[in-house]
Amino acid sequence: MVLIIRCVGFQTVENCVCTLRNLSYRLELEVPQARLLGLNELDDLLGKESPSKDSEPSCWGKKKKKKKRTPQEDQWDGVGPIPGLSKSPKGVEMLWHPSVVKPYLTLLAESSNPATLEGSAGSLQNLSAGNWKFAAYIRAAVRKEKGLPILVELLRMDNDRVVSSVATALRNMALDVRNKELIGMFSSDQVSYKGRVTIAFIKLFC
Fold it and tell me: Where are the ARM repeats (predicted)?
């Protein structure tokens, strides 16, 4: 981590981050189908309400059926080893494993290079998009690594490309209900900072 902090301004870091952003684009189409989520499992990970078909009528209206927790929900703590993967990700797994969240957040917190910031936010944007389980894991990992306030703070940056990339990343993070609540809390004093930031939040929540 110390090495990352010392090298954040290097051109090599900028090039690598931009390459990783490109490699992480639409990853869910490149991984085995077994890693994709079914709709019910995705709703569990996102913290959404059960669909209407999971409700049954009663005298007091519709009564929701209790959901059983999936083994993955019981075993995965958000930042530790993920069921089905090795403790230390290898090869292509390193592109989407939640352990990549911390280096990206370090770059977002320490770098002043707009291209590096845009690339790091773009990578998190790509990794947190789509209906696959690792997008949900990435969203949870960003929250647990306290990355949401880092992203929100970058909305104040005087660079439209960075702000746009960060706003889209936050929009994906907000698919997680707990993230959405925290983003609203962290950003309560940011919306009026500039009209540009207000537009970013319209993009985030619409």
Answer: 146-183
